[in-house]
Amino acid sequence: MTPDITVLYDTIRWEEKALLEAGKKKNINIQMLDCKKLSLELDNSIDDYGTVIQRCVSYYRNVHSTAALEGMGVNIINCLQTGILAGNKLYTHMLLKKVGVPTPYATVAFSKESALDALDKQGYPKVIKPTVGSWGRMISKLNDRDAAEGIIENRETMYPIYQIHYLEEFVKRPPRDIRAIMVGDKIVAAIYRNSENWKTNMALGGRAEKCEVTNEMEEICIKAKNAVQGQIVGVDLMESDERGLVVHEVNNTTEYKNTVRVCEVDIPSLMIDYALNSNK
Ligand SMILES: Nc1ncnc2c1ncn2[C@@H]1O[C@H](COP(=O)(O)OP(=O)(O)O)[C@@H](O)[C@H]1O
Ligand SMILES: [Mg+2]
């Protein structure tokens, strides 16, 4: 029997277990599929997965398996475009700007010299981010030229993606940011991530607190989600002292464990309902 929903994963986290439980509770046919065990004959078509919820942690596994499945006719959430666009902070930046969503001012430079020149001109502090990455990894605050030189020099020895020097203004804000979980055109729940660390990611010790959703926040998040053609996404926002809400990231395969815990919203159940209706 063809499943209604397939959860495609490479690591089983709380989120994936919760999706399976939510599916079972609804009495639908839900299957878990380990992407690491998967091989696909790309020239065939597939009709035995139902709607796929893409949950792979590895960026490359995620976008490539999405490309393959989508190309073989599978309805997959999020789609390939979202994987590509939201998966890259520079692409996202340009799209957010285009639709008028405030986002931190940023510069891209294509060599160590041009990055340092730009920093000399613009001044410090700045934030340097890999265009592709998550959990705050390899994101550094550049307080002065010495720090910038050291960090950028290191990057020049790494895989080419790290030689795209994406620099953001350091946004002055309260010691927290906001993670808003969107299922379709609705923020189903949002949290503040409080932290002593300037990077507020939960993976780096951020503490979750319920955040009341405002109309302004929801309007911005809908625009941000649509800018990357997303369906189920986690929008990261900061409360800039100067500019109000700014979106710094749209997460394609968002984590939501702590949001469920502090907001007591059954996000996995809402995700399953959305996925079931997405193919109609
Ligand atoms: N421009 C910035 N100014 C100040 N803090 C930032 C800025 N960009 C990111 N941060 C902090 O760093 C965290 C990680 O950045 P983010 O762009 O979301 O990358 P990741 O994909 O690794 O989560 C954010 O949640 C926020 O707390
Ligand atoms: Mg983030």
Present the secondary structure layout.
Elements (H helix, E strand, L loop, with lengths): L4 E5 L4 H12 L4 E5 L16 E4 L4 H13 L4 E2 L2 H7 L2 H10 L7 E4 L2 H11 L3 E4 L10 E3 L2 H11 L9 E5 L6 E8 L2 E9 L12 E4 L4 H13 L4 E9 L3 E8 L5 H7 L3 H11 L3
Parallel strand pairs: 1-2, 1-3, 3-4
Antiparallel strand pairs: 5-8, 6-7, 6-8, 9-10, 9-12, 10-11, 12-13
Helix pairs in contact: 1-9, 5-6
The structure holds adenosine-5'-diphosphate (ADP) and magnesium ion (MG).
How large is the count of helical segments?
9
Relevant CATH superfamily of the largest domain: ATP-grasp fold, B domain
Mean pLDDT: 97
What ligands are attached or bound here? adenosine-5'-diphosphate, magnesium ion
Low-confidence blocks of residues: none
Predict the CATH topology of the largest domain. D-amino Acid Aminotransferase, Chain A, domain 1
Quickly count the domains: 3
The appropriate CATH architecture of the largest domain is: 2-Layer Sandwich
What would the principal axes of the Cα set say about the shape?
globular
Distance between the termini: 19 Å
Classify the secondary structure makeup into a structural class: alpha+beta
Strand % is 25-35%
